[in-house]
Amino acid sequence: MEGKQVRVRxxxxxxxxxxxxxxxxxLFNWLLAKKTGGKFILRIEDxxxxxxxAESEEGIKDALRWLGLTWDEGIDAGGEYAPYRxxxxxxxxxxxxxxxxxxxxxxxxxxxDEELNQExxxxxxxxxxxxxxxxxxxxxxxRRDLYEKEGRKPAVxxxxxxDQTIVIDDLVRGEVVFDSxxxxxxxxxxxxxxxxxxxxxxxxxxxxxxxxxxRGEEHLxxxxxxxxxxxxxxxxxxxxxxxxxxxxxxRSKMSKRHGATSVELYRRQGYLREGLLNFLALxxxxxxxxREIFTAAELVEQFSLAHCAKSPAIFDPEKLNxxxxxxxxxxxxxxxxxxxxxxxxxxxxxxxxxxxEKSWLLKVVATAREHVSYAAQVPEHIRLYFEDEFDFxxxxxxxxxxxxxxxxxxxxFKLLVNAAKDLTPSGVQTVLKELVKSSGLPGKKVYMPVRVxxxxxxxxxxxxxxxxxLGRPALIKRVDYSLSKISAERAGGTE
RNA sequence: GGCCCCAUGGUCAAGCGGUUAAGACGUCGCCCUCUCAAGGCGAAGUCAGGGGUUCAACUCCCCUUGGGGCUACCA
Length: 495
Known about the structure:
This protein is mainly alpha-helical. The chain folds into four domains: 7-77 and 247-320, 3-Layer(aba) Sandwich (Rossmann fold), CATH 3.40.50; 89-243, 3-Layer(aba) Sandwich (Rossmann fold), CATH 3.40.50; 331-385; 395-492, Arc Repressor Mutant, subunit A, CATH 1.10.10.
């Protein structure tokens, strides 16, 4: 951009898990840093003491690391602008607050919650903007003493100058103009001495030499307040880029009721970091070419803030699934197995990794690779390989085995299976073709009984895939099992 | 209520005054096929409305409508 090294930051509040929207903000910042050879900084904005927690901070950092959005500077990484956790920077803010109060740009406000509330209500009823009246701007000493004797702890308010035009030059939105008359004197330090977001964020971005602030559009309306702080303190503001919000299916801001909104949840479902990143990047940003599937490195290569959309984007899980599926297909057998293993163990299909032979597992799991969008779908996909005893999926399936030719087909099948020298896919192909020929039946009358007899279901992967993986003993066992179930059914059945 | 942002198919979107208005997801159909998927091929489907500006508007301006955000001692 202009010679100076790009310094961008992601500054989450540790009040919950890393949200999809937050992940995208982090991603865009990270992409710009990587693209330009700049620095990506992680700062923790924990000034909301009530809601912030160390667990949330850890969760967010874990999620970022998992996504591969690692930071060059900041929390746990250190850097020349440390500390990077806002509650550890209180002294820094205090110094600036003294300046602001000293120069008359900020003042102490003793108003109580009730007073403020009343004021707001009254304004609203009159159809006026609910902004602070400024009544503490000029408190006389007597009044002040009185308040202090009452034990009231003052907050500090920024004195918003009237009749100012504040222009935010936004990299994605262009010039956005605000009138300072629409902004009430806002609180910069709470009565407990902790700075508020709009204050701390401005000071930190300035002090940490942040060059570009890329964040969600919900912050756009707050930017003029921050601009006022920059101005008041004599700081040069960074460049801003307010990216569009991610919305739920109903067009409102994505929240828990829209389903999985935390990165952690997707991780647990067995999504790939590259799939998630790829999908997130495509929400609000369009690559120059027509391609849609990118690795993280390719995203870095292609990324540009200039191609960011202004309109909000709806989070579409179907597209995410498709993109993730594309990335899954690129995995090797080993990689895919590693991704699926926790799901197999969690689903109970595999009590532990030693239950089955590794080489067999690898092959079985691999059969699902082209068919799933995320790893949690794997167990259902390969369940049939694990259970030698099963219920028939439907009456229709049973009926397939009840047909008069079925028994004949199955005994020939057993004979052929026993006789075959090896059960490779092509060997199986031969066996089945032979079966069709010798029985003189249409293909379906042969394939279906076999399929139902060995899986209990009428749908599934190709028999030439299933049969070699099951192997001779399991095949015989399953056919016999199905046959005995059917004859029991015949004997005890009502019709 | 005030201020700000946004507006191309169901969804993500390209477009940046002259195009048959790309592409992708999803949907539907066909092919493949023992089945289900996958895959291949194809189809339907969009410029929110109204005014301007212009020889010419999806593209520029205004209004309306709709959606969203902010207006907190939350971030």
